[in-house]
Design goal:
The chain has 117 residues and is mainly beta. The chain is built from no helices and nine strands. Strands 2, 5, 6, 8 and 9 form a five-stranded antiparallel sheet that branches. A hairpin with a 2-residue loop joins strand 5 and strand 6.
Length: 117
Amino acid sequence: NDLSNPVDLGKFAIQNGDTSSETRDETFQSVTFRQLGNGTLDNLSDITLTRNGEVVAKNPTIDGKYVTFEVNDTIKDSTTATYYIKAMVDVVDNNDGDTYKFKLKKDTDLNVIESIN
């Protein structure tokens, strides 16, 4: 594969399902994933979180198999935001290729609050 461009390693969506008559935007503050694949996070660089082609978080904190993004992105009232985890793959360790599978381990690993307007 072409390793000269960032690779999509994951995708997830957050829905702001507010149906009240008031506008209630939400702020996506942070997310922590555990990497369950056989690839190591040390083999990646320029790890980013994007939405609509724009980088919303970069330079995540990496602690072993955990990666934490500080985001601060607004999700408008009654919309769904789709995010992509992207990175440059610097090294591939396994003959059959490295796999990356990101999972939320606890409900506290995703932090979204109502925005104050």
